[in-house]
Amino acid sequence: MQAVILAGGKGTRLAERLQGRPKPLVDVAGVPLLERQIGTLRDYGVDAVVLLVNHAADQIAAFCAARENFGLARLALVDDGAPRGTAGAVLACLDRLADRFLVVYGDTLFNIDIDRFLAAHAEAGADATLFLHPNDHPFDSDLVAVQDGRITAFLPKPHPPGALRPNLVNAAFYVVEKRALEGWRDFPTPADFGQDLFPALLERGAFLQGFNSFEYIKDLGTPKRLDAACAHLRSGVVARARHRTPQACVFLDRDGTLNVLRDYVRRPEDLVLLPGAAEAARRFNAAEYRIAVVTNQPVIARGECSMEGLRAIHAKLDMALGEAGAYVDRLYVCPHHPDAGFPGEVRALKVACACRKPEPGLILQAARDLNADLARSWMIGDSTSDLLAARNAGVRSILVLTGAGGRDGKYRVRPDFTVPDIAAAAAFVLDIHPRLVAETAPLMDGVRPGDLICIGGPARAGKSTVAAVLAHALRRAGRDAAVLPLDAWIRPEAERTEGVLGRFDVEAAAAALDPWLKGGATAIDLPDYDRRRRLRCPGESLRLRAETVAILEGMPALMLPLRTGRRVLTIHLGTDEAGRQARVIADLMDRGLAGRDEAAAVYEARQRDEFPLVERAGRGAGLRLALDHCFP
Question: Which domains does the chain possess?
Answer without folding.
Answer: 2-240 (3.90.550.10), 246-438 (3.40.50.1000), 446-632 (3.40.50.300)
